[in-house]
Design a protein that fits this description.
- The structure is a single chain.
- This protein is α/β, with parallel strands linked by helices and 280 residues long.
- The chain has 11 helices and 10 strands.
- α10 crosses α11.
- The longest helix is centred in the C-terminal third of the chain and has 16 residues.
- The chain is elongated and about 75 Å long.
Length: 280
Amino acid sequence: MGAGQLYVVATPIGNLDDIGLRALSTLAHADTIAAEDTRVTARLLERHHLEGKLFPVHEHNERRAAERIVEQLAQGKNVALVTDAGTPGVADPGAVVVAMARAAGFRIVPIPGPNAAVTALSAAGLRQASFLFFGFLPSKPAARRKALAGLRALPYSLVFYEAPHRIVESVEDISAVIGADRTLVLARELTKVFEEIHRCALGAAAGWLRENPDRQRGEFVLIVEGAESAESSVEWEPVLSALLAEMPLVRAVKLTCSITGAKRKAVYARALSLDSKVDG
């Protein structure tokens, strides 16, 4: 009997229709489906008129379940690995199963699909092309602030997941450590009926959340604007220099920020420096 294959299948993050044809075909033909919560996956299968043999694989039993999956693969069975929402192994169970199956010599087949972080990034509109996906911040305040301190100077967007019961305190810590003037995009209930994507300064985020308790419901993706790198001034300094030659400093700074998206604080400081050199 030939060896089985482990299929790592991404599933919808909210709207059950957001699933690809390959994913549906894989779930339909798998000998067994390893699911984070069998009840959640059962609803997905029912929605698409599929049936499957389900067994649980979650954070509390993942190693034992991985051993069972390896045994099934050795018997020539194909196993589909899914989580409640999104891609297994990305801020969700699955990495242990994949590692053990790979170590045992079995083929791993990724079936791409929905991902909350990428979905939120697509609607964020931030200028930075690069991003760091952190996942969930530590739940304890001291550990959370320590982790944030290590990210503060990075020149790319920072992507976090957060649970509703910690969203306000997490946003307050991010603002305190990263800086209240950075831009934050909060995306909650993505692809669901009450989907909401809000963009504001970090310093205003906690107040916005407290204004309406409903804004604190659901799972969150937080995208924080990255630090401005020293090299990034190369992109806007020629614009600033040209405008300073034609108009007052304040107007030149305002137009430079509007044209390039640069931070006013950095542009203003550089404008003062250039202006003083001219005066001198």
